[in-house]
Amino acid sequence: MTTEEAIAQFRTVYASARAEIGKVMVGQDAIVDGTLTAIFGGGHVLLEGVPGLGKTLLVRTLGEVLDLSFSRVQFTPDLMPADILGTNLVMETPGGRREFQFQKGPVFAHIVLADEINRATPKTQSAMLEAMQERQVTAGGAVRPLPLPFFVLATQNPIDQEGTYPLPEAQLDRFFFKLLVGYPTREELTEILNRTTEGEKVIPQKVVSGEELLALQKMVRQVPIATAVKDYAVRLVLATHPKTDTAAPITNQFLRFGSSPRAAQVLTLAGKVRALTQGRFNVSFEDIAAVAAPTFRHRLIPNFEAEAEGVTTDQIIAQILRDVPRDAGLVSA
């Protein structure tokens, strides 16, 4: 298969998945694109928004569009790690003997919807850490691999904080993107009413299997990136570290901590996915800049001054993008 044919195949699959999701979801194009970018980049997604905006619907639709196993976990304060990972149960064999057998939890699926993840206790939240990073869980005295591909798509409500447990930075960093789900427009809300109160339920078609998705993820990693563009991603990450020589002015003013090296990996992979969706087999400066907000949004920790003045992380990211020059004079590889 030539490079042009590979790019065309990727764009076809991406466009088909986007179109099938669009049969169910109204609007939210940026959220759909962000979620698909993370999926093809091999990462997890955190969806934040008030109830009723379609976060859960998006994830369930994605599970229908991708020919993958899907499970949902409703996170609550009384949820225990074993409720997610699984546990050993005493089972009776056909011969009448009793033995321990491991019963897999809902995490043993290709796509796991962690609904309202911030409502579970830190002990239960931490049960997802190994699964998200290593694609495996340690339970029942053994290390058990998860099915591949494996994605965690989590939702949380930013308003109702009573009885919630904010995700620790270590877990937030394991999410590829953090996407903010906004309100629909007047036209979109009208279309939502037309689809949900008048018409019949639309069932999206499956467009890609697990094996095909793994192959496309491998293809994403093969997209070349010039040295200058890669250096731009590195300089963006370094610009978020306060009290350093590379810090942007707004970083020193409004941030306590900057992003981890994982942000540079996400910028690169997401940039490669975006390049393929644009029909290119190379990453541009614009690709990196376009994915900066969802990459950095949950990896920057504002200081008290930022919170007091109402400065958001998105505003800080936008200013960093303006302050960091795209081409630092390096020769492309």
- Determine the strand fraction and express it as a percent band: 15-25%
Spatial order of strands in the largest sheet: 3-6-9-1-10
CATH superfamily of the largest domain: P-loop containing nucleotide triphosphate hydrolases
CATH topology of the largest domain: Rossmann fold
CATH architecture of the largest domain: 3-Layer(aba) Sandwich
What's the rounded overall pLDDT mean? 86
Unreliable stretches: none
Calculate Rg over CA atoms.
21 Å
Tally of DSSP β-strands: 13
What series of H and E elements makes up the topology? HHEHEEHEEEHEEEHEHEHHHEHHHEHH
Structural class by helix and strand composition: alpha/beta
Helical percentage: 40-55%
Query: How does the major sheet shape up?
Result: 5 strands, parallel
Q: How far is the N terminus from the C terminus?
A: 25 Å
How would you describe the shape? globular
